[in-house]
Amino acid sequence: MKKVITIVLCAVMAFSFAACESSANGPDRKTGDNTQIPNPFVDCSTIQEAEDLAGFTAILPQRIPDGYSLDSIQAIKNDLIQMIYENGEGEITYRQAKGSDDISGSYVEYPEENTMTLGSLEVTVKGNEGTVSVATWVNGAYTFALMADSDGNGLANTAISDMINSMEANDVE
């Protein structure tokens, strides 16, 4: 009888240890947290709607590379306007916000980074093999960014400079 009681007690202790270990390691076994940050961008039907939401007037490029057309207009309330142009093979994203921070959202380290002067603007351009994937600049109270992906490549310097030079206001206050 003592042997049976000993075996039962050992079994109970083994299950107790297994249960304790299971709960101690439970959080480590999680496959991941599904909590995500909500998308702050609001789709807008018109530029005016985006301006009203962002709280400022957009300064838009008047020249867009051939083949590209406006695909979407978005804004972040009291913060930023974003316009996406597409041509079927790539896209150009244009952003404007108040302030002087880099608003490109690109954290890629490109092999080429240069500064080009366009009128009174100092534009930082980043890219690869002579093409521009990201251009950022500040003009007055606003910061701007152009991000280009054309079939896996950036755009030519001339396409980027033409877009920036065509902006409605060369000097913004």
Describe the protein.
The mean pLDDT is 86. The protein contains three helices and nine strands. Strands 1, 2, 3, 4, 5, 6, 7, 8 and 9 form a nine-stranded antiparallel sheet that branches. It has helices at residues 2-25, 47-54, 157-165, and strands spanning 42-44, 69-76, 80-86, 90-98, 112-118, 121-128, 131-139, 142-150, 155-156. With 173 residues, it is an alpha+beta fold. 24% of the residues lie in helices and 36% in strands. The protein starts with a helix and ends in an 8-residue tail after the last helix. It has a single domain (42-165), classed as 2-Layer Sandwich (Phosphorylase Kinase, domain 1), CATH 3.30.200.
Topology:
Blueprint: H1 2-25, E1 42-44, H2 47-54, E2 69-76, E3 80-86, E4 90-98, E5 112-118, E6 121-128, E7 131-139, E8 142-150, E9 155-156, H3 157-165
Antiparallel strand pairs: 1-2, 2-3, 3-4, 4-8, 5-6, 6-7, 7-8, 7-9
Protein name: DUF4367 domain-containing protein
List the keywords.
single chain; about 170 residues; alpha+beta; Phosphorylase Kinase, domain 1; nine-stranded antiparallel β-sheet; DUF4367 domain-containing protein
* CATH-defined architecture: 2-Layer Sandwich
Number of domain units: 1
How many extended strands?
9
Radius of gyration: 27 Å
Give the ordered list of helices and strands: HEHEEEEEEEEH
Shape descriptor reads: elongated
What fraction of residues sit in β-strands?
Answer: 35-45%
Q: Which residues sit in consecutive blocks of at least 5 with pLDDT less than 50? A: none
Helix amount: 10-25%
Q: Structural class of the helices, strands and pairings?
A: alpha+beta
Q: Regarding quaternary structure, how should these chains be classified?
A: single chain
**What does the largest sheet look like?**
9 strands, antiparallel
Give the overall average pLDDT: 86
CATH level 1 class label: Alpha Beta
Number of helices: 3
First-last Cα distance: 94 Å
CATH topology label: Phosphorylase Kinase, domain 1
